[in-house]
UniProtKB/TrEMBL annotation:
Residues 129-264 form the GFO/IDH/MocA-like oxidoreductase domain. Pfam families: GFO_IDH_MocA, GFO_IDH_MocA_C3. It comes from the Bacteria. The lineage of its organism: Bacteria, Bacillati, Actinomycetota, Actinomycetes, Micrococcales. InterPro entries: Gfo/Idh/MocA-like_OxRdtase_N (IPR000683), Gfo/Idh/MocA_oxidrdct_glycsds (IPR050463), GFO_IDH_MocA-like_dom (IPR055170), NAD(P)-bd_dom_sf (IPR036291). This is Gfo/Idh/MocA family oxidoreductase. Residues 4-117 form the Gfo/Idh/MocA-like oxidoreductase N-terminal domain. PANTHER family: BCDNA.GH03377 (PTHR43818:SF11).
Amino acid sequence: MSVGVGVIGAGVISDTYLENLQSFPDVDVVVVGDLLVDRAEAQARTHSVPAWGTVDDVLAHPDVQVVVNLTIPAAHIEVSMRAISAGKHVWTEKPIGLDREGAAELLTAAAAAGLRVGSAPDTVLGPGFQTAKRAIAAGIIGEPLFAQTVFQTQGPDLWHPAPQFLFAQGAGPLLDMGPYYFTGLVSLFGPVDRVSAVGRKAREERIIHTGPNAGATFPVEVPTTVQVVTAFDSGQQAQSLLSFDSALERAGVFEVHGTEGSIVLPDPNQFAGRIAYVKPLGVLRDGMSFEQEWIEVEQEGVVVGRGLGLLDMVHAIAEGRPHVASGDLALHVLDVMLSAEQSAATGDSVRVASTVDPVPAVAADFDPFARTL
């Protein structure tokens, strides 16, 4: 028997969710809702969903057991809380919210109602990240010591027709792209103990380059380059660069270095990718080559895309186990990013108040296209 899903928010990201969710035998999207009902109708018809309407229509639908919240970040907490009040489990796009207090209240309300909250990014459930996680756990690089992650680009104002929200409070490269990288780091190393960060704006205004408003300027409210050092409870460390100011386009860098080697992981914004490691060179003498041999790791698992975390949550509810992309993980990652924002503003190292249990792994033979419920 499939679990009924209602989608709230019929924007661009809903295409990927609807396409993937409709391909999983264990879930069934029964209704799409949006503030603009005609947009909800268009998406429902495109993806063969039988019903559409307003947000209230989704929340009142008797067959909806899980609400997928694809609204703008500023509305995430409000819409998710309404879904909990309606007796529905929630899967929300990232971030879980824009403030710690609201996110914590959401999780408290869900727990009191016996309901689950899951949150993107769910790229950490993909076979790319999971294969690398298993290899690290098996000791392929010895004891992990530190990690490096990089996301640097010229900025979304070059291609997005309405990029203002990506440079407003609650966004910027830290909160827009940071969830992918910090979720990956916490999934490997566990909770963060403290963070130190620096940040800056390249300029106070940006120009829209594409679409009907090309040439218009808008204010930049947040740092557009942030560098973060994280110290984990387990003793590992990481340094992360997130920038909308780089002429050099480089994204998806995720490296973990250990006592017996270094491994590169796939882009944490993707569900699959290259995994390879190198071993230490050993003793070096004059004239010896510094070239290192990359050893490729074969990826295990079925590649899908967004919605994988919701499917895991549905299975976890049925099996009585924790789900991977949990609300607790999302809250801790939000806390890490807001702590980094605070550190960059004050110049002080910030202790992260929240914590999270070890993040479960995904079995190598997990098949999202198998009917299990």
